[in-house]
Amino acid sequence: MGVIAGKRVVHYVKSGFQVEEFMKCRKSPYYFIHKYVRITHQQRGSIPFVPYPFQASILMGWLKYQATCMLKPRQMGISTLAAGYLLWMFLFHSHKDLLLISIKQNTARALMRRIKHMYRNLPDFLKIEIVNGSGGSLGTADILMGANGSTLEVQGSTNDAGRSGSYACVVFDEAAFQLHADTTFGAAGPATLNNGGKIIVLSTAFGMGNFFHRTYTGALAGDNGFHPIRLKWQMHPDYDAVWHARQLALLGRLRTAQEIDCNFLQSGYNVFDMAKIRAIEDRLLEFDPVETREDDKWLIYEKPVAGIEYVLGGDVATGRSRDYSTFSIFKLDGTEVACYKAKIGVRNYAKLIMRAGRYYNNALLAPEVNAIGEGVVAVCQEDGYDNIYHSVSKVLHLDEFEKDESMVQGWLTTGKSRHEIITGMDDDLKDDLVELNNPYFVQEAYTFIYNAANKAIAMGKGSSNKDRNSALMYEDEDAGTTYTDDAILGACIGNEVRKNPARWRGTMPIWTGQ
User: Taking the complete model, does pTM exceed 0.70, yes or no?
Assistant: First the structure.
């Protein structure tokens, strides 16, 4: 026996076989869970927890990545898997503080009861002594303290959750439903990550603009350091079309879309047909880009083919503000072959689109020329790129039969042309005249809405707080969040130009910015 904090501590004696098994479990959470963990089944009682292949892959992701964000359907066993993973860390890693945060304290304690059930059903040689609790209880309702110096704690979502600071691992369970997730992450997230700990955020979809939605879409965009994971209900071997139909009957259309199909609830004012957007999103999950460049921000879905003509539409930002610079490259038949989104300086962006243009058979470049876009065109001219789209800026009627068209290089966005290219993209998507291969576009489409002035724009962008809130069908303390529409505008420009690329070509006067 040993003594820790006045308590007797059991040192379990292990045979050679048990030592070997202990080391195998310590090395692999999958081996530990698959071979030794038992869970409670509503109909079958206590049963072995044999992870499905998709659950085994999730465990590997949790091991590989420091921060993960998972969009999941309900009833996939992920909360139970997370409980088993935390128990593995608790048992086999000394002096680790582990935290699981759920929607409310009672749901957090329900997960603790699962963890305790797993622990009680382990063979003795895998257990460590639990040194807290009273009257023979296994810890408390909220905390397990191990003789190895590790603690495993569960908390409900409150303003005070996670205030202890740095953890070896924090799990946000059903994060979309946690009212205080932003505060909790602010308290525990940075310190945990800075000290090498892990953050696991998982949830079914519930609304847009909240902590989970922002974290997941940010992970998809590669902006926040989280590795995105998305599950489909079809991955579960026990679920089929009959099961899905039963869920639809039980939950209704909207809740099924949210909780089973992983569809973020929309505001009701989305510009594009969200069924089309979702179909694009699902298709893109089935294949990866054939190549990526520029720190994986330039996604290439189809390499250039000799003799094929390409156009590039681009939206330009300074690289220092909230907005992004983007481009989309299309074949004339409407197939998008490449896309890009990142914060980049104007001159570097100009150099990049010229490299992309030359790679795609000297593609026709159509960067937006408004404001700072003038600098992009100027750099392209300096470097001798000779295939740039020209926009009509005005028409001068000289007499009854003559007119003079004043043109500028690049895409000139006006209120009228902006509306035309957006509605043109919407019509082309509905009629299957364009094939988008652009995850950036998809991400932005969920928050691309008609505002109170009936203008198509990213949610919260250029609007008052009243306008932002009126566009949402739920109450959210972060309703004022501003989203972006840069990938959408770049793609819409490219789509419009590819439909009539020869309209304004030829040698034009050097752009002077006047």
Answer: no
